[in-house]
């Protein structure tokens, strides 16, 4: 079975510097894949390439059996790839509910929204996503008073309102408390039932907790792909990444 996302021999150069070098990986539908690797390995650049923010020098990206390599960023988003950035962009003066509604209204075109509103019901969808993101008790609170963790969950909820089939996340637990990290792990496990996830993450404890599959990048190339047990037992990964993590 082909992966929901397939990256084939991707390369990207900035001026004369090759930062992604013949990189390939595959993500199976309904799984959570963690993308790890040392600083500067090319993880964020890979996310930028998947979402069409930047274009590769060579190689191919296939999503749901469709070649999206040359497509515009908004077409890729509409095809079902959502992204949550590290820095939240919630509207602080609006309530949690209003933020979710705004995110919903940003998707596709207004006529489609109207149609979907009638068919599925915005309220029902909003309640489902608030439950998934653990924000049911916060719907009527102003986003500006949320904790750091709650703000991150709201952002996840906002991306989910656009119904992505694949959700990309950059270091989602940065700055969170232990309790918030545990709750985020639970949210991710639930999310996997409805979406496929690719998470860039440095915290190997969290990766161990959430990942079905781990992809290790090093100097723009694939170093290893496998289960967390396979990755942690891989001597090359230990040399270039995990050893460095343990020493930190
Ligand atoms: N627009 C750009 N112009 C030039 N070089 C860039 C550009 N964007 C990224 N790079 C370089 O590409 C390399 C990979 O960067 P990238 O941010 O993808 O790494 P990363 O694995 O996400 O690192 P980190 O874990 O530190 O976030 C780095 O050496 C970076 O300096």
TrEMBL record:
Q: Where is the ABC transporter domain?
A: 5-244
Under the GO molecular function aspect, what terms does this record hold? ATP binding; ATP hydrolysis activity
SMART domains linked: AAA
Q: What PROSITE patterns would the database entry show?
A: ABC_TRANSPORTER_2
Any idea which UniProt keywords this protein has? ATP-binding, Nucleotide-binding, Transport
Query: Is this entry keyworded Transport?
Result: yes
Q: Known InterPro entries for this protein?
A: AAA+_ATPase, ABC_AA/LPS_Transport, ABC_transporter-like_ATP-bd, ABC_transptr_urea_ATP-bd_UrtD, BCA_ABC_TP_C, P-loop_NTPase
**Does the record's keyword annotation contain Acetylation?**
no
Question: What Gene Ontology cellular component terms go with this record?
Answer: plasma membrane
**NCBIfam families membership:** urea_trans_UrtD
Name recorded for this polypeptide? ABC transporter ATP-binding protein
Species of origin reads: Methylopila capsulata
């Amino acid at each position: 079975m082909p992966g929901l996302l397939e990256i084939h021999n991707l390369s990207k150069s900035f001026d004369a510097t090759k930062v992604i070098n013949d990189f390939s990986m595959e993500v199976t539908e309904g799984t959570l894949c963690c993308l790890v690797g040392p600083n500067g390995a090319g993880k964020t650049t890979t996310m930028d390439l998947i979402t069409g923010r930047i274009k590769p020098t060579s190689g191919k990206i296939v999503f749901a059996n469709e070649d999206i390599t040359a497509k515009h960023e908004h077409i890729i988003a509409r095809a079902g790839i959502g992204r949550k950035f590290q820095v939240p962009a919630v509207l602080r003066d609006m309530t949690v509910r209003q933020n979710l509604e705004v995110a919903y209204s940003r998707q596709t075109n207004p006529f489609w929204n109207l149609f979907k509103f009638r068919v599925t019901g915005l309220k029902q969808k909003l309640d489902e996503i608030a439950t998934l993101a653990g924000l049911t008790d916060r719907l009527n609170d102003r986003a500006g008073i949320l904790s750091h963790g709650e703000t991150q969950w709201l952002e996840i909820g906002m991306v989910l309102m656009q119904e992505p089939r694949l959700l990309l996340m950059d270091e989602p637990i940065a700055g969170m408390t232990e309790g918030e990290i545990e709750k985020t792990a639970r949210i991710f496990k639930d999310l996997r039932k409805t979406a496929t996830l690719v998470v860039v993450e440095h915290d190997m404890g969290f990766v161990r907790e959430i990942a079905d599959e781990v992809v290790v990048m090093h100097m723009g190339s694939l170093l290893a792909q496998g289960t967390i047990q396979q990755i942690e037992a891989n001597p090359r990964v230990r040399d270039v990444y995990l050893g460095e993590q343990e020493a930190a």
